[in-house]
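Need a sequence for this fold. Nothing fancy.
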């Protein structure tokens, strides 16, 4: 029996039911489901207030004006469809560019169901069912990353956002509010002998004691609630030293949203303190410890420490476990509590592999993912490795006290504190579509080893298989090391060639690959790693071809192998083989 005709593992075959397929193989089933959804929706609408009568009569529908308008609408609809047929075919295994791919059928239809009812999840007043679905979907995500049960934690702590950027803003806002509250309590407490830095990180237990002793005086030292310039002056007078505001510690591999965050919070870009990376491109824990010491020496409160689980450039996992150990040690030994946020916008869904003992992930990667459950907060993007339609991100917090540091009310809105998230979210109006899409994927596919874990494990194996083909090809392709997930990156360099020459060769290959994308080519992406951020990593990398550094950046071809059909045996196209062949022709 040939490789192409050999039957799939039954579990792999079952997972194929969750995607339409590159050639719309599951079209009949999707048509059946979609028609059934619309029919059910029609019947529901007709049955809600049946005695109200018809607003659109048969005579209206037969009128010339009605039919003309309908014809014009249909014309524009098909025109719009034709225009979007020129969109990037992200559903194809040939699309291996950025961090999106085919959407799953449960996600697509869950999204569609919410669109039909158009709920606004700001409160239960405008989204009776949507807010319930959101809480249940957040609970499923919490379980995936290993956070305590929502009910045990006191509430379903978290909510959906328009993406990872806003989720990161949500974390920074809450961390700022907590630091401000703790520092204000310490400054106002007549019995406190804590330094400015220690007061800002004193923890909830000490905070409650300070609040009891200080009373209303706490408010005048709260820079998040008052005029920050005036409050800053009061804090300076209280501690007899200049208060220069808090800082944010983020690894050099950060997403650009973090610089936006410090600007949005009015802290200024000076408050953005990058943390050096190690030779594997991960956050260096020793460098982080030095940064924390530096902040304490300068008496600059730390807004939060950020670890990245799945970097944008290479999909690398920071040592979340070691970062957490460092911060837990400070809390245990010195009473210094620092907020730990994990930006897992890309890699968070790899937590569906928790408990997996196969070779999908290495031991260090498993420890990193398992430690996310101990961090204060997490950013997830279901619209990346969750295969959910845009736009869908999520902010999730571990503890209820960190969640409710500030609230906002609208006079025209009635919030149920036990149910509604709108009082605590940056965004006011929020669609329930992302929540519904995530809810249905969690139920239908499962956020565990046999569901998403199996899909993502397949994509990681596809990445490794492609890397092996590239090595066997003996092409002058230099694979980027230490890529943990399903992202593959490489540059083009022959032995002894300089970085600048490698950049020119890589740019030529990128142009060659892109020019063929309209036919049987591939859609790829690119990234640049700078020596200012990735110095140790790049020094080790260019040694693999005895390269000479004559540029401040290295250009890489970047492939996100998210499509589960890229390595399919059943299709006529051998995508990995074709890609290696096209690279060879491009370098010819």
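Here you go.
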């Amino acid at each position: 029996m040939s490789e192409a005709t050999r039957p799939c593992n039954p579990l792999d075959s079952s997972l194929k039911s969750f995607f339409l397929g590159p050639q719309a193989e599951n079209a009949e089933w999707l048509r059946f489901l979609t028609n059934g959804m619309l029919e059910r929706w029609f019947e529901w609408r007709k049955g809600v207030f049946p005695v109200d009568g018809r607003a659109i009569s048969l005579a209206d529908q037969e009128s010339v004006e009605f039919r003309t308008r309908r014809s014009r609408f249909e014309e524009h609809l098909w025109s719009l469809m034709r225009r979007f047929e020129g969109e990037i075919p992200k559903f194809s295994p040939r699309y291996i560019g950025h961090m999106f791919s085919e959407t799953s059928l449960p996600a697509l239809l869950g999204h569609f169901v919410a669109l039909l009812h158009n709920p606004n999840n700001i409160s239960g007043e405008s989204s009776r069912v949507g807010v319930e679905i959101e809480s249940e979907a957040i609970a499923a995500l919490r379980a995936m990353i290993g956070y305590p049960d929502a009910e045990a934690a006191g509430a379903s702590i978290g909510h959906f956002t328009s993406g990872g950027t806003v989720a990161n803003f949500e974390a920074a806002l809450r961390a700022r509010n907590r630091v401000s509250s703790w520092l204000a309590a310490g400054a106002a407490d007549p019995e406190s002998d804590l330094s400015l830095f220690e007061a800002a990180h004193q923890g909830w237990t000490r905070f409650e004691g300070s609040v009891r002793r200080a009373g209303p005086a706490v408010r005048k030292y709260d820079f998040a609630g008052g005029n920050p310039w005036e409050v800053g002056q009061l804090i300076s007078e209280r501690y007899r030293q200049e208060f220069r505001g808090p800082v944010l510690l983020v690894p050099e591999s950060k997403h650009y949203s973090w610089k936006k965050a410090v600007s949005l919070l009015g802290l200024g870009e000076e408050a953005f303190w990058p943390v050096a990376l190690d030779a594997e491109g991960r956050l260096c824990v020793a460098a982080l410890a030095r940064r924390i010491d530096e902040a304490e020496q300068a008496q600059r409160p730390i807004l939060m420490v950020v670890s990245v689980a799945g970097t944008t450039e290479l999909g690398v996992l920071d040592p979340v476990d070691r970062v957490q150990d460092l911060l837990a040690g400070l809390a245990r030994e010195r009473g210094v509590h620092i907020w730990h946020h994990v930006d897992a916008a890309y890699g968070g869904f790899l937590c569906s592999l928790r408990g997996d003992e196969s070779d999908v992930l290495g031991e260090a990667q498993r420890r990193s993912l398992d430690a996310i459950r101990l961090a204060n907060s997490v950013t997830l993007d279901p619209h990346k490795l969750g295969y959910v339609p845009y736009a869908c991100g999520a902010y999730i917090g571990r503890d209820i006290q960190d969640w409710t540091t500030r609230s906002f009310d609208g006079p025209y809105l009635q919030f149920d504190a036990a149910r509604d998230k709108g009082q605590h979210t940056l965004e006011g109006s929020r669609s329930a579509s992302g929540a519904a899409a995530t809810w249905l994927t969690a139920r239908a596919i499962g956020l565990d080893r046999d569901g998403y874990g199996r899909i993502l494990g397949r994509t990681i194996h596809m990445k490794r298989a492609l890397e092996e083909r590239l090595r066997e090809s003996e092409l002058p392709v230099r694979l980027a090391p230490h890529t943990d997930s399903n992202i593959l990156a490489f540059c083009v360099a022959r032995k002894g060639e300089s970085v600048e020459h490698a950049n020119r060769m890589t740019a030529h290959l990128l142009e060659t690959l892109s020019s063929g994308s309209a036919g049987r080519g591939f859609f790829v992406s690119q990234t640049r790693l700078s020596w200012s951020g990735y110095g140790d990593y790049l020094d080790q990398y260019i040694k693999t071809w005895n390269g000479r550094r004559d540029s401040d950046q290295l250009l890489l071809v970047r492939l996100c192998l998210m499509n589960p059909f890229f390595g399919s045996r059943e299709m006529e196209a051998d995508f990995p083989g074709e890609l290696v062949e096209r690279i060879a022709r491009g370098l010819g």
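For context: The chain has a mean pLDDT of 92.
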